[in-house]
Design a protein that fits this description.
With 480 residues, this protein is α+β, with helices and mostly antiparallel strands. The chain folds into two domains: 197 residues, Endonuclease III, domain 1, CATH 1.10.340.30; 253 residues, Endonuclease/exonuclease/phosphatase (Deoxyribonuclease I, Chain A), CATH 3.60.10.10. The chain has 19 helices and 14 strands. The strands form three sheets. A six-stranded mixed beta sheet has the order 3-4-2-1-14-13. Strands 5-6-7-8-12-9 form a six-stranded mixed beta sheet. Helix 3 crosses helix 4, helix 3 runs antiparallel to helix 9 and helix 17 runs parallel beside helix 18. The longest helix is centred in the N-terminal third of the chain and has 19 residues. It is globular, with a radius of gyration of 25 Å. The model has no long low-confidence stretch (mean pLDDT 94). It binds iron/sulfur cluster (SF4).
């Protein structure tokens, strides 16, 4: 299938009018200032737009000109731009920028590819974007969205952004060189997303060849009843993940019930946008100790009852279990204890596991039960990247795995493994050694259901494309 590029770009120009404008374009339009466009472009690499926008605001409040930027040292810059991706490198580039501009360009941003490429931290993509947005010079900025989408359409067949840029220079009419980046960034962020694009609602649905694409899984419908999307996510600090696109991620996942673990906050420490998430009923159970543990549940439907804790002060003081009762099932959100590196909490963890199982089995006598959460254990060798090296480590000790064996032997069903038997499916990665990038991870987050609910498991998934924590969300589509 060959595509009509002019027609497609015209359709998209109309389509993205209602989308969020990419942050660099916004700054270009609002300021018409090459310096700000350059700085925002440097900040935006590998960073979500809302994070870039906030960092740019903080930085420009202190340094709106080259001269003002020269007064900030690297450490100060790191603080101002955190948490943009690679903030330490970017702070180093920004600290070196004023001297370079002053020495070679009379403190002006150069309007040439060669000049821009000589600046610290500026590569071809940044240079093209600055030329296009700050100086309106025809240049094709090929970022990940342009490269990806042009290949999905089969308009180019390339394996690197540079080859895509060269191919587009050959065949894309020049009038589209400047706008193509804005169009495809907005479209790539809003509809044709890098993972699981929204082909179901795409205006190009009929004309797109979808080369190499796995479209988004929709919630399955069932004649037998309503399917609810249950999501579990250890956020490793709700206030921290909020700065990393949490609200946008929730919107994208579209959960009916969302269980969070390790929120590390009291409700009163949270902004209104999270304390009462728009469209959801919100429930929190924080640990007594500040900044530690704690769980929260957001639910579209108002539950019939909320049960706080499991009536054991040793665990309830740590805010580990929060249960919502719905008409046809209980949703237990649980943050299982970590047995610690020295295994000093192994015994306590086992006692918690037994207490939680007893609590869940009591509820399962009345109706269906889903236990979601960070179980802090990889059950089988397939559930972690390096099983042999971790036999004696917390989360994969024989004792922890033995409890998981006895739990599943008692009839509890690991919903993910019910649907997916593949290896390399992980939900947690160490922050060290670029473990997530290399997918050296563990699957320690689960939705387990009682034995009578096997037929209610409509689908189960791990949303590895959602970032913000060292865990990613796990998902169960459950016939409620
Ligand atoms: S149909 Fe799917 S792959 Fe094609 S452009 Fe639309 S969202 Fe992207």
């Amino acid at each position: 299938m060959s595509i009509d590029i002019e027609k497609i770009l015209q359709v998209l120009a109309h389509e993205v009018k209602g989308y969020q404008v990419p942050v660099v374009d916004l700054i270009a339009v609002q300021t018409r200032d090459p310096f700000k466009v350059l700085v925002a472009t440097i900040l935006s690499a590998r960073t979500k737009d809302e994070v870039t926008a906030q960092a740019a605001d903080r930085l420009f409040a202190r340094a709106a000109t080259v001269e003002e930027l020269a007064k900030l040292d690297e450490k100060r810059l790191q603080k101002l731009i955190y948490p943009v991706g690679f903030y330490k490198n970017k702070a180093r580039y920004l600290a070196a920028l004023p001297a370079k501009l002053s020495d070679d360009f009379d403190s002006q941003v150069p309007a040439s590819m060669e000049g821009l490429l000589s600046l610290p931290g500026v590569g071809r993509k940044t240079a093209n974007l600055v030329l296009a947005q700050a100086f309106a010079i025809p240049a094709i900025c090929v970022d990940t969205h342009v490269h990806r989408i042009m290949n999905i359409w089969g308009y180019v067949e390339t394996d690197t952004p540079l080859k895509t840029e060269m191919a587009l220079r050959e065949k894309l009419p020049e009038k589209y060189w400047i706008p193509v980046n804005s169009l495809l960034v907005a479209f790539g962020q809003g509809t044709c997303r890098p993972v699981a694009p929204h082909c179901d609602r795409c205006v190009l649905g009929d004309s797109c060849p979808q080369i190499g694409v796995t479209p988004r899984k929709l919630k399955k419908k069932s004649a037998a009843g309503e399917v609810m999307r249950l999501v579990s996510w250890n956020v490793n600090g709700l206030r921290a993940v909020l700065k990393k696109g949490f609200l946008e991620s929730v919107k994208e996942m579209d959960p009916d019930v969302l269980g969070l673990q390790e929120i590390k906050a009291m409700p009163e420490q949270l902004p209104d946008s999270v304390r009462s998430l728009n469209g959801y009923h919100s429930y929190f159970y924080s640990a007594q100790r500040k900044g530690y543990s704690g769980v929260a549940v957001y639910s579209r439907k108002k539950p019939e009852q909320v049960i706080v804790g499991i009536d054991d002060p040793r665990f309830d003081s740590e805010g580990r279990v929060l249960t919502l009762e719905f008409t046809t099932f209980y949703f237990i959100n649980c943050y299982f204890p970590n047995s610690k590196n020295d295994l000093s909490r192994l015994g306590l963890k086992h006692e918690f596991n037994v207490a939680l199982q007893n609590f869940a089995e009591e509820l399962a006598r009345k109706k269906a039960v889903v236990i979601c959460g960070d179980y802090n254990v990889a059950h089988k060798e397939i559930d972690l990247a390096n099983p042999r090296q971790n036999q004696k480590n917390a989360g994969f000790t024989p004792q922890e795995r033995a409890w998981m064996d006895s739990f599943t032997d008692a009839g509890w069903i690991d919903s993910f493994r019910e649907k997916n038997k593949e290896a390399d499916q992980y939900s947690w990665w160490s922050f060290r050694s670029r473990a997530r990038e290399k997918n050296i991870g563990w699957r320690i987050d689960y939705h387990c259901v009682d034995q009578k609910s096997r037929r209610r498991i409509m689908d189960a998934d791990i949303f590895q494309h959602i970032y913000g924590s060292d865990h990613c969300p796990v998902v169960l589509d459950f016939l409620s």
